[in-house]
Hints:
Blueprint: E1 15-21, E2 27-28, E3 33-34, H1 36-52, E4 59-70, E5 79-90, E6 93-102, E7 105-118, H2 119-131
Antiparallel strand pairs: 1-5, 2-3, 4-7, 5-6, 6-7
Amino acid sequence: MYQDIDFSSIPIGIKCVESYRxxxxxxxxxxxxxxTPSMILFMEMTAMRCVEKYLPLGYxxxxxxxxxxxxxxxxxxxTVWVEAVLISRDNRKLVFSVKAFVGERLIGEGLxxxxxxxxxxxxxxxxxxxxx
Length: 132
């Protein structure tokens, strides 16, 4: 199914930046700052949105791997801006360099891998796993 689709139109080096407000649900309550899972979610969302306009109808990306360091806190109410840069593409596998900042201060960085999938095929897989 994926062999007939050429994903080479997704440009290596494409860079996307999005900002997020640190809300109550994003806080690690025991330390009072942005949780690592929330920072990773911001990174994944930015990477996903970065390539979606290049995908054929009926396709999306799913997160596969995350390798990031959370190096500095972000307080409640802060604006976190995330940069995702596509650094490699191997057919359906996309690798992003991701960084998160509050102002000019780096709060997290690393690599994030995503795979291009057919939405229909992915949902079928979910349905089959639920009925097993």
